[in-house]
Amino acid sequence: MERAFQRVVLVGKYRDPSVLPGLRRLRALLAELGVATIIECQSAAQLESDMELPQGAFDALSPDGDLIIALGGDGTILGTARQAAGSGVPILGVNQGRLGFLADISIHDIEKTLPPILAGHYQRDARSVLQAQLWRAGQCLQSGIAINEVLVHKGCCETMIELQVHIDGQFIYTQRADGLIVATPTGSTAYALSAGGPIVSPQLPAMVLVPICPHTLNARPLTIADQVSVQIDLIAGRQPAALSLDSHDTFPLQPGDTIRIHRSTCDAVFIHPEDEDFYQILRRKLHWAALPGED
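Structure (tokenized):
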């Protein structure tokens, strides 16, 4: 069989031994198909795997012939995507989590779904990535990327925070709230959706600003083009807060801090089965086709 991918890198949910049976199942299938297979270094170390596979790091992968298969839930896929972003190496998410909008293949169907993908029958899906910078007193203290969202929130404080928002230098509003989510289309089905934001097709070049429990009845989510720059200022004299990227990297904020957000020059690349589509995933995950009273 002619293959689109010559080597597969396995990634499992860190510190979760429940993924080991699924990883062994993948290893056995890939061996049967004659595909060279390695396991990502951190996965091997943290899972203490006995799979006896060669180990490899993300920075040693090539977009020409390599495929990452990440087994877990959306958190595992996001963590993998952050590390692989910009490399051009595609990621196939295999679901062993709960809801899962990115991991759209079940481990229970892998023997049926994986061989056509390895043969080149798949969809390539490039997703936008956000770049966020934390500025304090004229210095950039932190910089990082987010696949889902950049979140400015009240952290452990009991009181709301006060934010001032500019888009491309133009003043938009001052907001008292528990926080503000700046989400990609990918992140529109994550925290932003729970906070009342819209679902945005991943094909749209957009960002969504979603206030969290705003102290006003006229605050609404705002969808903007992703070519703009968003600036969030934590107003001086108020409580400290925190900046979170995909709920993974978190940095403490002080009054007077500025967060600058724009679309990154790199994308996160995913692949899906040929017959998969975004709206099919929504119907399945959100039970849009179910009648009232049905599961």
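Residues 129-265 form a domain with the Tumour Suppressor Smad4 fold (CATH 2.60.200.30). The chain has two domains: 7-120, 129-265.
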